[in-house]
Amino acid sequence: MFLRLSSNLVITGTLCSNRLIHWNYFLHNSMLAFVLLALTLCGTTHGCEEGLYGPDCDKTCSATCEFGRCHSSTGRCRSCPPGRDGSQCNRDCKTGMFGHGCDKYCSRYCWSGSEACDPVDGACVNGCKAGYLPPLCVDTCPPGRYGINCTSDCIGNCLDGKCDHAYGYCDKCPEGKTGTRCLDDCPSGKYGMDCAEGCPPSCLNGLCHPITGQCEACPEGFKGISCNE
């Protein structure tokens, strides 16, 4: 663009609604009002079209920039796609990092540790350690499942079918059962959930039903479920 306001003032510039404006002006007299008028007439919009940058908006943003967008003055990518980093998005995420801007940490429960996850979505490359659910290995196994990649079913007589998410040990046992898999009967003198209750001391030989706690037999002269009558 070329604009002459008088014999003493020449203003040149490149004008585009989405391009930078660069002015070279030569003033022999003070004519600020005319300069402001020229800027108003020629537009004041700054910035290149998306995908371009530089003083004349004639340079193309790096193809590795997310959506091909970069800063109009520096050419630095505005953002990087997942798994990429750097001013031009030309570097992979550092080991143990993933996501947009490589700002997320891989799970420490990845099978090979936090060094082994996909730099784009964080999925653990070799699966999960015992007790954690693929692909991100952040959440524990759902109820009823345990082990590496949560592929095993809780076994035995676990209460409500729930067991330790890593090793499969029962969280609790139903009444009358004990052991890591709740497969054993209560020992003598014990009853109830997890065999945590003691039989009434008045029971003959201290023996009672492993579920209800009712005395199996009473000493001579006593009766009742607890042999206290």
Automatic annotation (TrEMBL):
Which keywords appear in this protein's UniProt record, sorted alphabetically?
A: EGF-like domain, Signal
Q: Specify the superkingdom.
A: Eukaryota
> Record's PANTHER family?
EGF-LIKE DOMAIN-CONTAINING PROTEIN, SCAVENGER RECEPTOR CLASS F
Name the Gene Ontology molecular function terms of this record: scavenger receptor activity
SUPFAM superfamilies registered for this protein in UniProt: Growth factor receptor domain
- Would the keyword Endoplasmic reticulum turn up in this protein's UniProt record? no
Ranges for domain EGF-like come to 60-90, 116-151, 153-183, 194-228
Quote the InterPro entries the UniProt record gives: EGF, Growth_fac_rcpt_cys_sf, MEGF10/SREC1/2-like
Q: Where is the signal peptide?
A: 1-47
Q: What is this protein called?
A: EGF-like domain-containing protein
